[in-house]
Design brief:
Layout: H1 2-24, H2 27-56
Helix pairs in contact: 1-2
Length: about 60
């Protein structure tokens, strides 16, 4: 559950940069959004793997 909480915090942290990018056209914010989304992808994959391992061990 710790990783899931971290995932939610990461989404919240990206929100401000996404707003800057889409509303103001801030290119640097767009770069930060892309990096954050990559981090989200990696964390989501870790969670998927953990869930699958837990499910299969029962």
């Amino acid at each position: 559950m710790e990783k899931f909480t971290k995932l939610k915090e990461l989404v919240a942290s990206i929100e401000a940069d996404a707003t800057k990018f889409y509303n103001s056209g801030n290119g640097a914010a767009g770069t930060r959004v892309r990096k954050g989304m990559q981090d989200l992808k990696n964390l989501a994959q870790e969670i998927r793997t953990e869930v699958t391992e837990t499910k299969n061990s029962k």
